[in-house]
Amino acid sequence: MKKAKNDNKTIILDVAQQLFYENGINNTSYETIAKECGITKPMISYYFDSKAHLAGTIFGKYSREMSDYFTEKVYQSVSGY
Fold this sequence. Notes:
mainly alpha
């Protein structure tokens, strides 16, 4: 089965998030991310023009997920669900 184009982006985000958490952003290189993803560094650069862009995307995704989670919890407590 052919891998969808966005699969690489999702894999990069997931792997980078874990590596940033474990090692810190400054101690995680594109080389390490690429190796863990099984892709090349240029593939990461295709989606993210810098490590700051990659980290910002992860932070934005995490922020949205947390916002959605807390919004749901507030809704449940107010509505009695």
